[in-house]
Amino acid sequence: MRAALGADTEGSRARMPSTSANCSFLNRALANAVRMRIRFELYPDNIYPYLVPPLRPCLTRHSACTIGLGQGSGNSSVDPEPYWTEISDYFSFLALPVVVTFALATQVTSVVVLCQQHTRASLDIYLLGLCLASLLLLATTSVLAAQHYVGVYEALIRAQPYALSCRDWFWYTAIWLIVMMAFERALTVSATRASVLCTPTQTAVVVVMVFCVGLVSALPRFWEYHSAEHFDKRTNATALAAVKTASTATAEYNTMYFWYVKTLTIFLPYVMMLVTGLTLALRTRGPALARRYTAVKHTSAAAMARRMKEETALSRLLILLMAMYAAFSTPLCLLELLARVLPAWLDSETRVFAALHNLFTVLFFLHYALHLILYFCYSKHFRLTLLALCCCCC
Fold this sequence. Notes:
There is one protein chain. The chain is mainly alpha-helical and 394 residues long. The chain has helices at 2-42, 83-116, 122-145, 154-190, 200-217, 219-222, 251-283, 286-293, 301-341, 351-369, 371-378, 380-393; strands at residues 225-232, 237-244. β1 (225-232) and β2 form a beta hairpin. The N and C termini lie far apart (88 Å).
């Protein structure tokens, strides 16, 4: 019996290393499962790593869409990628909803404040139109990015083509509203005598016309994508996805429309912003403003000084709006230009391009959250109205 007990004890001791190895294996498997769970929740899908879809054959985050970036392998030994891209995607994935939500809140606040003003100048009408265009731009972008946060649903897939078209519409409108109000401001400060070129009613007509021109400019996008059943090679089944139409899936159309969009959003606006910005900077200096106001009778020197100070602040507001748009949108535009012109330097089918695209997208939408600060600092009527509303709420 003692020999049998000894044999059992020795056997149990011999089995202890195996049990310990099994426990460590289970712990590693659990840790890997937790890491995979965190990666699933906080990391853009490898199949479709773009938070906001660029102009690709497909807009839907689905395995049926071939985006060309690590088709779901998820194996670093097979699809090696720089470590910084993972960190950047974590940041972009978490920062985008925060930035967009904050920007929506600030734009809604700006619309409420501008609507509550009793006396509106032409610049206030332009700012109201800009806030509405920015608000709608952020709303349509939220529809496009929602698939990464709430999942892929049929309603979202069917809304994606319309959301993309409307996003371009409001994007063009926001850009050209900034250009138009800077252009009118440059004409106003360039006049020999202090005067108002447009009444608020005339300015409202101009704002409506800019919205109409933005809609016409974005019309080709309304026929570029549609929701259709797409064949999934992995599952050998069909799935609903927002894909390009057959007439727009050609290389000639993509090249032509790419340069058309860049002309509307970079080349023409930047040139006009540069010219109007230099004009505003030169014409709002002290001597230039003093010459304009010498022919106007003011009640006192203090009134003239106060009026000149307000004029300078409004010109600075427009200069900063143009500079902020150029600073926050240029990285994303240059990234797409480099990928199109110099694909050997920056391939658009790599994870590096996707990580930079996500990061610069967050940067692009960040400047819409900063508009309220500029309005408050450089517009006296906006500041007084906002303070009055805050006092009424308190």
